[in-house]
Write a structure and sequence with these properties.
CATH topology: Jelly Rolls
Strand order of the largest sheet: 1-8-3-6
Distance between the termini: 38 Å
CATH architecture: Sandwich
Helix content: 25-40%
CATH class: Mainly Beta
Largest sheet: 4 strands, antiparallel
Number of strands: 8
CATH superfamily: Jelly Rolls
Number of helices: 5
Strand content: 25-35%
Shape: globular
Radius of gyration: 17 Å
Amino acid sequence: MCTIPNLLFHLIHHKLYVAACEVRRKALLNPHCIFSSTIQPADALHAFSRWPTAFNAMTLTSNTTYTPTHRPRTDTSFEVLVHTGGWSSEFELPDIGARMKYGSGTVVVLCGGLLQRSKKTFGEQVEWAFTMNEFMFERTGTDMPRWSYLPPDIQLEQRRGRE
């Protein structure tokens, strides 16, 4: 399941892919760098030694009938969504007025917190979300290359008014 998202990651944002691999390497060499009250160094080392992807977070959702319109957390800079299962869904990006069929095998690549999204599912489905979280870069002292910027003083609604 991780091969296609990794390949897309490598092709679409090579600098971030290389930096993400560096985060993984540093975490393997020093699991204390990602230590927190919930992640012990031995657990971190065990997880990172078996982690199958350059992404540092992965979420699996199944049989969710409706995901309300939302904008992901701001520390998610890059994500690949992979829809599997026998039923189709409808994926919507209301900020740009896009609505598309989201059937089994569909892959969507997004700049994390840039666009709102929602999803309606018709039947059984599984969605894999591969994401990058900034805190892992911060904890390992690795620079995180960007691929888009939203200056804090310019909101998305203001940008739309100028187009």
